[in-house]
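CHAIN AND CONFORMATION:
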Amino acid sequence: MTAIILAMWIFIGIWLVFVLAGKEKFYIFKNRLATYLIIAACVLFFIFLTSKIIRFNMLVNQSKSSDIESDILNVAAAMAMFKKDVGRFPKMQEGLEALIDGKKNPGGKARI
């Protein structure tokens, strides 16, 4: 996404430089003022688009962190249930499989 935003801004910048330099083949219309208005509209559109893309990226990152927090809370709850049922936390040899597979843990229950 960042590459797309950067490419848009580079395109507008180069186009504006050529128009300001008086290169008529880069005018959209023969009228210089109309070309400036089109460039201004593109800049406003790209500002709007950039803000929406940044907002979308923030929401995606926020949802990823909430998923991680949820997973951590689930493991913590499973460990608390294991301790309540068995009276201890899983040993290193048992690992997290003691929380997942009910056949391999002492309490006989799957907790995740």
